[in-house]
Amino acid sequence: MEATDRMAAPSAGTARRERSGGRDGRRSSGRTSALPHRAAPYIVRNIPTYDILGEESLGRIEAAADRILAEIGIEFRDDPVALEHWKAAGADVDGLLVRFEPGMLREILKSAPPSFTQHARNPANSVEIGGKNVVFAPAYGSPFVMDLDKGRRYGTIEDFRNFIKLAQSSPWLHHSGGTICEPVDVPVNKRHLDMVYSHLKYSDRCFMGSVTAESRAEDNIEMARIVFGRDFVDRNCVILGNVNVNSPLVWDGTMTNALRAYARANQAAVIVPFILGGAMGPVTNAGAIAQSLAETMAGCALTQLERKGAPVIFGNFLSSMSLRSGSPTFGTPEPAIGSMVIGQLARRLNLPLRCAGNFSNSKLPDAQAMNEGTMSMLSAVHCGANFILHSAGFLDGLLSMSYEKFVMDADFCGALHSYLAGVVVDDNTLALDAFREVGVGKHFLGCAHTMENYQTAFWDSAIADNEPFEKWDIAGRTDAATRANARWKQMLADYQAPPMDPAIDEALVEFVDRTKAQMADAWY
Amino acid sequence: MEATDRMAAPSAGTARRERSGGRDGRRSSGRTSALPHRAAPYIVRNIPTYDILGEESLGRIEAAADRILAEIGIEFRDDPVALEHWKAAGADVDGLLVRFEPGMLREILKSAPPSFTQHARNPANSVEIGGKNVVFAPAYGSPFVMDLDKGRRYGTIEDFRNFIKLAQSSPWLHHSGGTICEPVDVPVNKRHLDMVYSHLKYSDRCFMGSVTAESRAEDNIEMARIVFGRDFVDRNCVILGNVNVNSPLVWDGTMTNALRAYARANQAAVIVPFILGGAMGPVTNAGAIAQSLAETMAGCALTQLERKGAPVIFGNFLSSMSLRSGSPTFGTPEPAIGSMVIGQLARRLNLPLRCAGNFSNSKLPDAQAMNEGTMSMLSAVHCGANFILHSAGFLDGLLSMSYEKFVMDADFCGALHSYLAGVVVDDNTLALDAFREVGVGKHFLGCAHTMENYQTAFWDSAIADNEPFEKWDIAGRTDAATRANARWKQMLADYQAPPMDPAIDEALVEFVDRTKAQMADAWY
């Protein structure tokens, strides 16, 4: 039952990866498993980040964040320990309000690792978060789910498990995520147990734990200890907790207590202000970015005060507003371009980055959904995000997890594997021999270079219809959503659970049952 | 009837722009016409290009292009004048095959302008092509059109005019385009007359002429002379011709004769290899890019041999292939990332760039269409393209012009106006006063900074539904395609023709009638 035993058996991981690749290949595309980008459990980007602002503008944003921190400050509610940490660190604590001298948080943040490994129970699926690495995780936090057959309804634990199975079955997602949807048929105070047990049981990838109470975070960390071993967990990151700032400029105790619980256990908090411009922050991008920087630096620094050297992810969630309805909007151009700046700022702090995702406000897996989602997701990969939460399933302004959009998005994550591989320039790809063989005015279809390279040359979507119109017509004139509907059902039918040590499973079930028995059901 | 008279009346242009903005505002969004990005007839980008390759890799691609040009060469068919030009310039001409010493084409290209103005008959709509400028033009060349009501059918002159009207009505397109769809109800040898007359009559923006025969190019240039005046046309660009390489490494006489006709008249050719990787070029991106560079340099240089200093646009069209069906694919990741390299290469040549567009292979305006289109279109704006043909309407692998996708794409072009405005960093956008006013834990909805900035803060789509689920539900649960269907019908109903001098109209009609009368109808 010790982690080290399982870590010594890399063949299991390799086997799973090959099985997953082969299965997907047979089912959908006839692809071989030879595609090189399928071999790795995450992406190592081969294109640079897209840096849109120069030194002077970045410096002005950082200076504005420093002034927000020094002149206005951040309130820390319901967490006396956090206030004690800030006092000890030399901040100006006035009641709940904490003000920070310019440079103070940057100094504290120097102890945070620029990159760290999150270990999966299958070591072949462990991911490196930071640097040039990109990890795709499902969307997080919707109360509803939807599909083309049944429309929108509240999520259940069955939906929750289904999405874990779909993520586990996709070669293009790298992480099992966290609260993929709210399982509203489980009491609120017990969900964290069923959710993390489901991640551990139905996936062998990395996952996220609860942040809705310090005790729940600690329960989830305890479950991780059962799987990985207590010593291993104390030395390594095996669970992430996604904590939100209560923007503007408030950290509430629920979040900071969870944040500190993860940090204390040497696990990684993801620090995320959700700023809807014009509501939780200024209506102008630069100000919202400065605020985001201030709030995130404070949260990240608090992890280091709790445990120096604990892994932490610099996160953010920029959003805009419809001027007509006042509704939040998602996947719009201003947050997309703002993400590029956030990426530059995170790199100047030398911290791993979480940014954007496949955002949309559409209520259907339609053209709006993929227009908004694609612009938003590309901003995430361009800005250099290392951990991309909300990579798959996000619809309805994060109120609904869509089965069809989930598999569309996962497919797009596959396309991004090819995109992030960039343009390789070497003798083979320059293909001068092919030009010599083919000459002028002939085609390259059968030439030696094409035969040697075609299997790995182009991304081959499992959702897109690339047939001629006539064949598409005869085949039933499907749209992408209809094909996605068939695909998620097939994926669930084909799903195979990853192997799990029965002793660990038993210990987890025992822990979950025992913990549940100690509490009456609570539904709010 | 002289251009100079009309050029002296800028108030007409201003009026049209305001009318268009106001009309659109009332119809769809309640926006005022105060949005700053609506004031200009094209975009001046405020974000840098996305340069993904370093000097060494770019140099290797350029060296490969040089070797293709020197060792393999390019065939120029059915155009003895072109061969004479090459001989006079010092190229190695062997029958139809022309080989070029490394550096020779680059030297010739130094006379091509890095940027030029294309003049519109309404001077307020003239566009600057090159530098930091971005011009969106409709898709080009589909034999079919489609809409949700009538499905796919051959395009007619009525469809052609409809798309001109839709483009003219959109504040987010900058150019009327060229062969928006093939008007198959008009004889092949007379289409160029009706098409260019329609552009001139129903739009007052810039447009493109025919390239399917030298005489047709010259007819279209003659029509431009009627509108702009002969001297004005000889001194200024008023018409573009989009000429395709017959890849790999063949220029056919139809295209080079049209290319030379435009250059001779001091009008701009757009030089475009269409390379479907694995068919018309190598299956690997670097080789296809090197080939594209070689073919485009040769075409651009030929314009300079015909008339030194003639404007020319460095174009390209990269595409990939489905490994399962052998079909061409559009809007896929490899061409999208390849575009970034093409952009870098064009800038090293100091030439205006045409690259990518809103590509898709989908047969419907669905999630696939906008996923592919968005990735492709973003690559065009990231790579620094100055003239983006295929910005709106492209479906079905360029076989069909879609009414619904046209208005969706035009709406996305609007979003790109906000995206390309970048993140402005100044005292107003940093909003420190707003933080002081609002403090911690309060919202920014009514604060002074929000009130001063909200009208121009966020892109407001006319297609996206950003209402809460319940309001969307009550309003009829529409998808984006259904909303786009209603929108293009409303836009056509609201369309108002731009004013045209009756004497010019009469002269154009007379020219078209006289030219048609000289030819029997030809249907192929």
Automatic annotation (TrEMBL), chains A, B:
E.C. number: 2.1.1.-
UniProt keyword annotation of Transferase present: yes
UniProt keyword 4Fe-4S, yes or no: no
Gene Ontology annotations of biological process type: methanogenesis; methylation
Gene Ontology MF term list: methyltransferase activity
Region (Disordered): 1-35
Gene3D superfamilies, A to Z: Trimethylamine methyltransferase-like
Alphabetical UniProt keywords: Methyltransferase, Transferase
One Pfam assignment: MTTB
Family: Belongs to the trimethylamine methyltransferase family.
Protein name from the UniProt record: Methyltransferase
Species whose genome carries this gene: Hoeflea olei
